[in-house]
């Protein structure tokens, strides 16, 4: 009888673990909000030129910190609720979901696994960012909106981690590379990927989108300022104080961006 009881408990546990994203949304308001925000965020990032046909955003499951939500492999602009999949921290799709996933989901699993303070991760290839990863010029905050860049965004060099052949396809295509990217990111919120793009993180979807949009703006402003002469960057103290002040107001641009994408649908 005891053995039968344990088997029943095991089966129930498996069934609970296998709840689909839709079922979790129906059972948990926090999950529903997270998934719906994730869909909107995909559309905002496309509208703000942070992603195009490529790029993606994830969010940690508020009901289970060891899993995260990410769309199946589709363009961000067309993501719908039914496209959202659930993954574990090794980038494995859960709930028996066999749909094609983003090949670089390991960017998300690597950062979310190693940074418990981060709940949302974004990856894209916005062109204003790319020059910094190619030249070694540090992307640093030039104004208060991008203060989260701190003393500068680190640059991930995939050649240092690709074994045995350093000539890769530039993709973060496995857990080891995801962990390496996270290590390069360190305690920062933004990391450049040489010859590829960027990854950004924050404790919420709204803040991750905010940081991504303004990091890209900072890249353009910094490039123009460098043509004119000596650039006055924010000091570490200015960056820390500005970050604390400006990130209290992220609801304002989020509302603007949300209304903008809803009108275009």
Structure description:
- The protein is α+β, with helices and mostly antiparallel strands.
- It has a single domain, classed as Class II aldolase/adducin N-terminal domain (L-fuculose-1-phosphate Aldolase, 3-Layer(aba) Sandwich), CATH 3.40.225.10.
- It has nine helices and seven strands.
- The protein has a seven-stranded mixed beta sheet, with helices on both faces.
- α2 packs across α3.
- The longest helix is centred in the last third of the chain and has 24 residues, at 205-228.
- The chain is globular, with a radius of gyration of 19 Å.
Structure summarized in a few sentences:
By secondary structure, the protein is of the alpha+beta class. The protein has one domain: Class II aldolase/adducin N-terminal domain (L-fuculose-1-phosphate Aldolase). It contains nine helices and seven strands.
Present the secondary structure layout.
Layout: H1 2-17, H2 21-27, H3 29-47, E1 56-61, E2 64-71, E3 84-88, H4 105-114, E4 120-124, H5 127-135, E5 155-156, H6 175-185, E6 190-193, E7 197-202, H7 205-228, H8 236-246, H9 251-264
Parallel strand pairs: 5-6
Antiparallel strand pairs: 1-2, 1-4, 2-3, 4-7, 6-7
Helix pairs in contact: 2-3, 3-7, 3-9, 4-6
